[in-house]
């Protein structure tokens, strides 16, 4: 939507100023808004508490006096686990607190009661103004030593991704952190079990355009679903010390009632479990990731390890960003830091690197690290404000790069790492006209890298389009650069329709839901999770083996590979069926003199062929061992080849089958020299049959 605005009309951003003195002023137009700017622009009070909305909900509070509070809060907590209700958490939490404060009867709420409260009465209050369309999947995934753990995503963006970094950092820490890890393990056990009770998987998303809380059709179905919200001691028996490990996340009804009035509408809630006798009700299912992070920070603070943890987290996140950029752009494009770029006065909590972006343009890639001490003191809900000296530093580096011989501008890309808190990054007062700046969260930037093969040039292009439109008086009100990019992506890489470019001064609002495309495509394309290896007796992290392909059907192939093992020279991938995962290995480190690229091609060929044949193998061959299987490729014969002339390769005789040996975990396939000759020059009238003997029918 493009809205034309007169110079003396009020600015639509909600500031109360005239257009010419706000977004219509070029000096203000390119300033990036802070989270507080958006709350203020839309008339929202981020610190809004339950006691503040009570005057608007007096009728509902009075009605709740006749109802059983446990029944009401159980039903509301259950509704929060339905994927289609992912965006209505604030009104569901509000109903819980109102029931805790005012419920004092025996009446059982019906579907009609809940529908009236949640879709009529509460939406008439200020609560509904905090709700946005979905920006991410309803379910996230965290990898642990016990396997994958699914969580319900909350209102923060990508809580599973940040929790993953926190857990990985803890896992690499000293043994003294063992009790902290046990608390996280217990909370994630409950979360994973609850998600599975709902029948959801890691790709579960709700409606893209929800307009009301979805409820079961009958009272019977409502209370049947609500039963799954409660955990008994028997349910928690796999956790041998669950009482102690879950204690930080548990509250009683009386404790909840005492704190209810002061609870904020937008808040990461630590106590997500309500104790009911010997049972536990999962009260706030979408806050589990935030609760775990908050509790871990508290524990680290008590151990005086918060600074060490922050440094370790920085060393995990920044190198990952830079290594991905180096793989993509090449080491040869890095600009040396000697001379003018060797800045001894670099602001605290940042890491940086500079690249040649194009023939005469530059990319300044900056990772800004969250302050864990601030997170400990202020909590996950408090907006984190980076050091003010960052602005002048960014401006200085941009100026230096622009003045290099032949320099024609560039892009400063700020990636905000940490634990997912809302952030405020000081912006330079001015850049040269040929320079642009963008700020992305670590979560969104890493997904952008997976969905855009030339992400750096695409960021440059959208920046130039935005500048061109700004020069014509067309501005955008958007939560962040990722959201604007999602809008650009959804509109086929156009910020506005071509016919609207000459429409005059205008403000284009960009909804929060536009970022969903980036997160959806990124999660699907990367699909990081864990698969169990019976021979190693551990869960191994994998991602899609073909995340980028010219063919759309390849993007959802059930073929996965382990990046971590690949860095050690061990090629390990898996093909996943409904029954099991079939691992396929090639230990290239055993063949130091061999061409590793060629060994990779053999392994990749075998995995592709395995995907084709395992459905038939599982259907036709009975008696396969239960669980996952491991197929090991012995390529020693091929690795020994030193003469790769065509005449020599073609002289190797073909074979009808390859030797296969079984063991307790799967099979070893010995790949002979003939694999090369059979695939090197197949008869033109026939298909390449070199792959077929890899997995013969007798297997």
Question: Describe it for me?
Answer:
- With 699 residues, the protein is of the alpha/beta class.
- The strands form 6 sheets. An 8-stranded mixed β-sheet has the order 16-17-18-19-20-21-23-22. Strands 4-7-6-5 form a 4-stranded mixed β-sheet.
- Helix 5 runs antiparallel to helix 6, helix 9 runs antiparallel to helix 13 and helix 13 packs across helix 15.
- The longest helix has 25 residues.
- The N terminus is likely disordered.
Key terms for this structure?
single chain; 699 residues; alpha/beta; eight-stranded mixed beta sheet; four-stranded mixed beta sheet; 38% helix; globular; disordered N terminus
> Approximately how much beta-strand content do the residues carry?
15-25%
Helix coverage percent: 25-40%
Extended strand count: 23
Nearest-angstrom radius of gyration? 28 Å
Q: What class, by secondary structure content?
A: alpha/beta
Biggest beta sheet summary: 8 strands, mixed
Separation, N- and C-terminal Cα atoms: 61 Å
Strand order of the largest sheet: 16-17-18-19-20-21-23-22
The 3D shape can be described as globular
Task: Compile the SSE list and pairings.
Blueprint: E1 3-4, H1 26-29, H2 35-41, H3 50-53, H4 58-63, H5 69-79, H6 89-102, H7 111-121, E2 139-144, E3 147-152, H8 159-171, H9 178-197, H10 219-227, E4 230-231, H11 242-246, E5 250-251, H12 253-260, E6 273-276, E7 279-282, H13 288-302, H14 306-329, E8 350-356, E9 362-368, H15 372-378, E10 384-385, H16 389-402, E11 410-416, E12 423-424, E13 435-441, H17 442-451, H18 455-471, E14 474-477, H19 481-490, E15 506-509, H20 516-526, E16 529-533, E17 538-544, E18 559-561, H21 563-566, E19 570-576, E20 581-587, H22 596-620, E21 629-634, H23 636-639, H24 646-650, E22 660-662, E23 666-670, H25 674-680
Parallel strand pairs: 5-6, 9-11, 10-12, 11-13, 14-15, 20-21, 21-23
Antiparallel strand pairs: 1-15, 2-3, 4-7, 6-7, 8-9, 16-17, 17-18, 18-19, 19-20, 22-23
């Amino acid at each position: 939507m493009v809205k034309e605005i007169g110079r003396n009309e009020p600015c639509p951003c909600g500031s109360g100023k005239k257009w010419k003195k706000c977004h219509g002023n070029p000096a203000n137009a390119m300033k990036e808004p802070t989270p507080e700017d958006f709350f203020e622009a839309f008339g929202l009070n981020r610190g809004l508490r339950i006691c503040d909305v009570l005057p608007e909900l007096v009728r509902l509070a009075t009605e709740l006096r006749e109802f059983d509070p446990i029944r009401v809060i159980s039903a509301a907590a259950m509704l929060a686990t339905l994927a289609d209700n992912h965006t209505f958490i604030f009104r569901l939490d509000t109903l819980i607190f109102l029931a805790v404060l005012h419920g004092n009867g025996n009446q059982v709420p019906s579907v009609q009661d809940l529908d009236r409260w949640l879709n009529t009465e509460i939406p008439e209050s200020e609560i509904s103004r905090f709700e946005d369309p979905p920006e991410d999947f309803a379910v996230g995934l965290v990898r642990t030593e016990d396997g994958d753990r699914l969580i319900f995503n909350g209102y923060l963006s990508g809580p599973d991704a940040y929790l993953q970094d926190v857990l990985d950092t803890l896992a690499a820490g000293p043994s003294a952190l063992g009790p902290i890890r046990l608390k996280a393990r217990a909370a994630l056990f409950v979360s994973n079990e609850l998600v599975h009770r709902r029948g959801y998987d890691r790709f579960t998303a709700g409606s893209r355009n929800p307009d009301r809380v979805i409820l079961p059709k009958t009272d019977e179905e409502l209370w049947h679903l609500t039963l799954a919200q409660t955990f008994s001691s028997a349910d928690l028996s796999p956790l041998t010390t669950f009482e102690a490990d879950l204690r930080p996340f548990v509250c009683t009804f009386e404790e909840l009632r005492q704190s209810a009035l002061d609870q904020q509408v937008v808040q990461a809630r630590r106590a997500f479990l309500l104790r009911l006798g010997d049972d536990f009700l999962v009260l706030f299912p979408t806050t589990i990731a935030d609760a775990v992070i908050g509790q871990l920070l508290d524990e680290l603070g008590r151990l005086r390890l918060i600074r060490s943890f922050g440094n370790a987290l920085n060393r995990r996140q920044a190198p990952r960003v830079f290594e991905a950029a180096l793989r993509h752009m090449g080491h040869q494009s890095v600009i040396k830091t000697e001379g003018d770029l060797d800045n001894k006065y670099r602001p605290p909590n940042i890491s940086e690197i500079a690249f040649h972006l194009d023939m005469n343009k530059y990319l300044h890639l900056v990772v800004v690290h969250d302050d864990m001490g601030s997170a400990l003191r202020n909590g996950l809900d408090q907006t984190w404000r980076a050091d003010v000296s960052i602005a002048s530093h960014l401006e200085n580096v941009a100026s230096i790069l622009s003045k290099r011989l032949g320099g024609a501008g560039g892009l400063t890309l700020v990636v905000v790492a940490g634990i997912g808190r809302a952030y405020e990054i000081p912006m330079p007062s001015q850049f040269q006209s040929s320079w642009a700046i963008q700020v992305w969260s670590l979560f969104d930037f890493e997904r952008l890298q997976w969905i855009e093969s030339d992400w750096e040039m695409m960021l440059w292009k959208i920046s130039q389009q935005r500048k061109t439109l700004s020069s014509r008086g067309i501005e955008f009100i958007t939560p962040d650069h990722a959201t604007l990019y999602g809008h650009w992506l959804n509109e086929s890489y156009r910020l506005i329709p071509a016919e609207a470019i000459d429409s005059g001064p205008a403000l284009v609002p960009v909804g929060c839901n536009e970022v969903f495309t980036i997160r959806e495509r990124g999660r699907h394309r990367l699909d990081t999770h864990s698969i169990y290896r019976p021979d190693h007796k551990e869960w191994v992290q994998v991602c899609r083996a073909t995340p980028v392909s010219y063919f759309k059907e390849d993007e959802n192939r059930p073929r996965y590979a382990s990046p971590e093992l690949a860095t050690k020279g061990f090629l390990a991938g898996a093909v996943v069926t409904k029954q099991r995962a079939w691992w396929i290995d090639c230990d290239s480190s055993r063949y130091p003199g061999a061409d590793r690229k060629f060994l990779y091609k053999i392994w990749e060929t075998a995995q592709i062929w395995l995907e084709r044949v395992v459905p038939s193998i599982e259907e036709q061959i009975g008696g396969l061992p239960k669980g996952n299987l491991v197929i090991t490729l012995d390529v020693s014969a091929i690795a020994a080849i030193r003469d790769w002339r065509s005449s020599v390769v073609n002289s190797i005789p073909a074979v009808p089958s390859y030797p296969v040996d079984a063991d307790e975990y799967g099979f070893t396939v010995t790949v002979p020299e003939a694999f090369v000759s059979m695939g090197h020059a197949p008869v033109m009238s026939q298909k390449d049959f070199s792959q077929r003997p890899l997995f013969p029918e007798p297997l």
